[in-house]
Fold this sequence. Notes:
Blueprint: E1 6-12, E2 17-20, E3 26-38, E4 44-53, H1 56-64, E5 70-82, E6 89-101, H2 118-124
Parallel strand pairs: 4-6
Antiparallel strand pairs: 1-3, 1-5, 2-3, 3-4, 5-6
Amino acid sequence: MDRNEVSLVGRLSAPAEERPLPSGDTVTKWRIIVRRRRHRRGAALSDSIPCVTFNPETAAVVRALKPRDQIEVTGAFRCRIFGPSNAKTWRYEVEVNTAKPYEADLPEPGDPADDLDTAKLAALVPRQVPYLSPAG
């Protein structure tokens, strides 16, 4: 069974931009900065992932956030092709269905009533995704 599901938690890089389309719809665009695990040399790398939505409610949530605010989005990975037939441009982006501000539920330091739950803590740590090896 094929699945195209994306779930991202990161920081908003800049305010969202809106653009009206000839159809009368409005597309809202923004980028999410997602940190990678530490690189071998000790430097933390990040990815800037382009996101779009055509949903006015989702766009309102994103517009309400400031740059550097944490955000959680879900959607699908899309490849869009633009331009004339002799000079096509391919663009990959996440078409977002839902967006919400993200706040990690970390226990307060020194709070004896809130024991450190390893399952809760493990859910906050990013999972490593194996890289695809080039096809031979």
